[in-house]
Sequence to fold (57 residues):
Amino acid sequence: MPHVFDRFQRADEDRGRGHGLGLFIAASLAKLHGGSLSARSTLGEGSTFTLRLPRRN
Fold:
């Protein structure tokens, strides 16, 4: 989990053909908009991803 938002990071090399950019791009876009993307995971139970963006006035 500590590297889940790193570029090209993959939890399971056997899954798909992607290059592991999805979460990196999502976190980068959130940051560009003044927000954040975080993740929490419990082994055997699943993961929760939280996207926070500032409210527009």
User: Anything to note?
Assistant: The two ends are 34 Å apart (CA to CA). The mean pLDDT is 83.
